[in-house]
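Trying the structure run again after the queue cleared.
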Amino acid sequence: MYINAMGFYIPSERIPNSYFEQLNGLTNDWIVQRTGIETRSKVSEGENVDTMAFEAIDDALSQLPYDVKDTDLIVAASYCVYDSVATVAHKAQRKYDIKGAKAVYASSACSSFINGLEIIEGYFAMGKASKALLICSEQNSYYANTSDPKSGHLWGDAAVAYFISKDRQSDRDIRIADVYTESLGNVGKGPDGVRLRPKEDGITMPDGRDVFIHACRYMIHALNKSLENSGLGIADIRKLICHQANKRIVAQVAHQLEKPMSDFLNNIEELGNTGSASAPLVFAQNRDKFSSGDKAALMVFGGGYSCGCFIVEFP
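Done. Tokens:
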């Protein structure tokens, strides 16, 4: 598979750590020490999951080497939804008049984007599609309870859109060398580690320590599986990108892999945890930092639990 174009949208509003000190007594130093977050992105009035998705798609269209109407599969993959019936996949189909395409929505918490990649890989393998649009738009502020001292200060909003094809479409296409996912619902706290119950208490993280331990362990596990599938070693990877849940998790992964933090790309300091959009967002933001032949690995861990990794190679 090949990435033909990447687009993203980050709302302009930022919520500083000082907001939470006024709200529930969490100081700037306390938040930075435990999470690495200094500010987090937040949608403005009138923005939502759908509007962010359209902005990300428009950003990608400027790079797309074919007509958007050639897309025959649209996958929306995220856990934040504005409308669970008229999904952003269907709304994108309507907005861009993509006639005859399949449109589906999938969620696996913060692993959703990579699971979306695997769904596309399956459609391609079955011969049921050849050009796909993968949308991941997370409006955490729609669900987050900012007064929750355990996790209310973590969340940011953002969206990404990737156009992906079965075959190479241009000399700028980025090859996807491997996609690996694994569900971990039977591990640790599993489905109770992170929850989103809109009519009860929104996004909550009852046991952050359990999430931390398993995120570190299983992002490395997913990376090793993907490296094995690709016939690569860790030395072949120029840059690594972790799900932007907590910078201490990134530091622990770096320590266990015996890699310097300079080998990792992050945006959590400014944007907070932007959910399943976070790792592909970091990658899209930093595309211009890569050269021909460079390889990057993107690792994720989702509440529920789940993990995944995909490896890309620049032309």
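The first strand starts at residue 2 and ends at 9. Worth checking whether this holds up in the mutant runs.
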